[in-house]
Amino acid sequence: MLRGRYWVMMTLLALVCTAAAGWDSAGAAGYNEVLLPVSRSVSGMAGTPAEPTQPSVAAKASALQLEKQAEALYGYVTEGNINKTRETIDAISRLFVASSFEGLTSVEGVNALSGAILDMKAAASAVQLQPERWELAAARLRLAANSLTHPRQPMWLQYYKLILEDLNDMERSAAGSDQAGWRTAVSRLQERYDTIRPAVIITRKPEEVNRFDAWLSYASGLASAARPPGREELMDAVSNGREAARVMFGKEKDEPTLSLPLGPREYGLAGWLGAGFILAALAYTGYRKYRGEKSRWNPY
């Protein structure tokens, strides 16, 4: 009797365990069916690259208005109209504060534009007027505003020829070991680059801007070095400058850059003495060969 009850209890216990196991597997399967689609959708979202922000209509309209006011400002500055200049720069400042240029340039570009506006405000509010400073600040702001509305063909690209002329002057000075000429050419190139730099930052990648900045700093350091740099060092600097300018201005690598031919190398007294010794040795060798040939054909 007890044995029969024991087997009944064991059978019931086995049935309960089997049912529980079946429920757990079914529940787990259902749980996986719910989670797998979610995990797939999340992984798909993570693998999708973020699309670049497109400029809004309002941003484009603000950029066009800013460019128009910057052109008017440049005209007032060249005319010497102080009142109109100050009124226009104040209007540009208000427009900049009230606008968003997202999608038109990077954060660095917005900061560069802000710096150009502040430079113009400082020049316009100076107690003593400096026409050259006014024109430089107005030109810098005009080029920066133009870069927002014409990122593919901005006005600052027209400076490529001027930059190449400065590089040619640097190369000419390097070939002639003219330190004074090198300093003058570097200083002139620095002034021109300062004019377009905010516009360059607006339209170019940071690494391209940093590359040219680093090269220009190196070239300026060569001009003020305690030890005068050698001819080869200066020529290498010019070559690196041409490449940095080519990348920044978006020119093709095989495009001619108006490079100057190298000037003749100055060998000095030691060089001429060495050349004379080599020529004398060659002449003596030729004379010995001539005597040997003559003796062979004329033994008497």
TrEMBL record:
Keywords assigned by UniProt, alphabetized: Membrane, Signal, Transmembrane, Transmembrane helix
InterPro entries reported in the protein's UniProt record: Spore_YpjB
Keyword Signal part of the UniProt annotation: yes
Record field: transmembrane: 267-287
Signal sequence region: 1-21
Domain of life of the source: Bacteria
Protein name (database record): Sporulation protein
UniProt organism field: Paenibacillus apii
